[in-house]
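TA notes, week 10

Several of you asked for a full example with nothing omitted. So below is the full record: structure tokens for the whole chain, then the designed sequence directly under it. When grading your own attempts, check the secondary structure regions first.
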């Protein structure tokens, strides 16, 4: 019985994505000076809001905001295209495919012009969002959020 269960579970265990614990090299709980040192000249701004002015994802330049909590620890990271003209369905699909390749299948929600894909891990929630207005304009964002309940686990 246990052997059958292991055989069934093996593909799931082998392909389960690892919790990123932050965004790229930036990890939850890092302080501003650590992030500034880590990104060596790429980071601008001041606490509680540091930024990486230009970071490439799927061939498109994104602005990255590194948001700190009250104790100056990294709490969430928000990425959005620098140019509104880049907020296309094609970019949204490309970013979605990159995230699926890295983290597996997401949870999906469609509601009143907003499409969201979400990946949930023990310490991190990643949300890819596309909001379309009635005039056809769109906003695309990717958010890496430290789970509030992660420290209680």
């Amino acid at each position: 019985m246990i052997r059958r269960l292991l055989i069934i579970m093996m593909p799931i265990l082998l392909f389960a994505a690892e919790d990123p614990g932050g965004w790229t090299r930036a990890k939850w709980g890092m302080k501003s000076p650590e992030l500034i040192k880590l990104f060596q000249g790429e980071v601008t701004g001041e606490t509680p809001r540091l930024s990486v002015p230009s970071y490439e994802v799927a061939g498109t330049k994104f602005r990255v905001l590194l948001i700190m909590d009250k104790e100056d620890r990294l709490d969430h990271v928000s990425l959005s295209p620098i140019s509104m003209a880049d907020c296309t369905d094609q970019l949204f699909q490309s970013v979605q495919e990159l995230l699926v390749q890295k983290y597996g299948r997401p949870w999906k929600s469609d509601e009143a012009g907003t499409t969201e894909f979400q990946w949930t891990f023990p310490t991190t929630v990643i949300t890819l969002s596309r909001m379309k207005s009635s005039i056809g304009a769109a906003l695309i964002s990717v958010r890496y959020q430290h789970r509030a309940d992660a420290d209680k686990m």
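The CA atoms of residues 51 and 65 lie 4 Å apart. Use that as a sanity check on your answer.
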